């Protein structure tokens, strides 16, 4: 009888040991739905760019890119929604911006650590700049209008990425907050910087650049010979191509940390 019982127990042990043994987190972690932190090393410029191209709701490259400098995130998002433009917040899934310090949030370690957070957004910003094409706009705070910051992501990463790219971005315009008539030229790929920097948009309209029709003043649009029939056709074609019918007006992203 004892021999039979031993045989049964040994057989049961062999069968149980043939199944993989699950490895569980500590019971307290499991009850809270704890997930491991993502590391910033995963989020390279190429990673962001490849993910953007997989977004079916986007028309890429971006012919309607809006950039902004410090303190302008929320105004830029609203302005973009009102004018069929895109901001960096519209491109990638909002899950990437989840900053809550909760055990269920895999992005918590990146967003609560200043150095990881900075690297994360610099890589995202470079990818966003790579996606841009044609004429882009950068929005500045009124207090920074005459002397835009050059120590932040806009100038160090986005501006330099676009200027140094082969030929995707042709023109950069700047805007004082949401004042459409304030638009000035910052840079153009074909024109000397000294001839266009902080000049009226008529400078680039004269060579057939696309400028959103609501920007500038009436004088900008009729100055000299720039509003010839050929330039008008170029502008209308560009305006038509800039609107895909896909809206990027999503819930506004309220991010609590200032990105330098």
Computed CA radius of gyration, to the nearest angstrom: 26 Å
What is the distance, rounded to the nearest whole angstrom, between the alpha carbons of the first and last residues? 78 Å
**How many β-strands, per DSSP?**
5
**Strand fraction band?**
5-15%
Task: Work out the helicity level.
Answer: 25-40%
Number of helices: 11
Order of helices and strands: HHHEHHHEHEEHEHHH
Going by helix content, strand content and strand pairing, the class is: alpha/beta
| Tally of discrete structural domains | 1
Shape: elongated
Low-confidence region ranges: 4-31, 224-229, 240-245
Largest sheet, in brief, is:
5 strands, mixed
Strand order of the largest sheet: 1-2-3-4-5
The whole-number mean of residue pLDDT values reads 82
Description:
With 260 residues, the chain is an alpha/beta fold. It has one domain (34-242). Helix content is 39%, strand content 12%. The chain has helices at 2-17, 27-31, 45-53, 73-82, 108-112, 114-131, 153-164, 193-196, 202-205, 218-222, 229-242; strands at 66-68, 134-140, 169-176, 179-188, 199-200. The protein has a five-stranded mixed sheet with strand order 1-2-3-4-5. Helix 6 (114-131) runs parallel beside helix 7. The radius of gyration is 26 Å and the shape is elongated. The relative contact order is 0.13. The model is unreliable at 4-31, 224-229 and 240-245 (pLDDT under 50). Keywords: Signal. Residues 1-18 form the signal peptide.
């Amino acid at each position: 009888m004892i021999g039979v019982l031993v045989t049964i127990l040994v057989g049961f042990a062999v069968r149980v040991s043939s199944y993989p043994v699950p490895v569980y987190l500590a019971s307290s972690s499991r009850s809270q739905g704890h997930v491991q932190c993502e590391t910033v090393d995963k989020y390279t410029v190429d990673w962001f760019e490849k993910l953007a191209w997989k977004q079916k709701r986007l028309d890429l490259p971006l012919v309607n890119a809006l950039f902004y400098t410090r303190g302008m995130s929320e105004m830029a998002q609203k302005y973009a929604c009102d004018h069929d433009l895109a901001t960096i917040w519209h491109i990638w899934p909002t899950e990437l911006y989840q900053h809550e310090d909760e055990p269920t949030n895999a992005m918590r370690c990146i967003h609560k650590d200043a150095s990881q957070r900075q690297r994360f957004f610099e890589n995202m910003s470079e990818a966003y700049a790579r996606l841009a094409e044609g004429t882009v706009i950068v929005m500045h705070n009124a207090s920074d209008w005459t002397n835009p910051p050059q120590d932040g992501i806009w100038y160090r990463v986005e501006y330099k990425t676009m200027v140094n790219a082969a030929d995707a971005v042709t023109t950069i315009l700047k805007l004082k907050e949401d004042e459409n008539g304030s638009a000035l030229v910052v840079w153009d790929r074909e024109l000397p910087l000294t001839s266009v920097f902080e000049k009226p948009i008529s400078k680039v309209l004269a060579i057939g650049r696309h400028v959103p029709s609501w920007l500038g003043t009436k004088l900008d649009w009729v100055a000299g010979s720039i509003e010839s029939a050929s330039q008008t056709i170029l502008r209308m074609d560009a305006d038509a191509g800039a609107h895909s019918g896909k809206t990027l007006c999503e819930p506004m992203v309220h991010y609590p940390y200032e990105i330098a």
